[in-house]
Amino acid sequence: MKKQYGYAWITCEKGLIRYNPSSGDVKIYDADKNIKANKIRHIAIQNSNVIWVSSSGNSLYKLILR
Questions:
Q1: Domain range for residue 55?
Q2: Which of 37, 48, 60, 63 could be stapled to 55 by a disulfide with Cβ–Cβ 3.0 to 4.6 Å?
Q3: Structural domain total, the chain
Q4: pTM for this structure?
Q5: Which residues are CB-neighbours of 2 under 8 A, at least 6 positions away?
Q6: Which CATH number goes with the domain that contains 19?
């Protein structure tokens, strides 16, 4: 889990979860639909709109948040 820009980011086998502790809102970025990766291993937060995701298959993905 990483906390940055007001969100807590949680990785799981099926995707990435963005949790806003202030409002309780949860957004799920599904690996099949949003990231195209199997098992997410690491995330790096570039800024409030860009997250880098690495998968178990040694792939790197750029997730642009809207």
A1: 2-64
A2: 37
A3: 1
A4: 0.71
A5: 8, 9, 43, 45
A6: 2.40.10
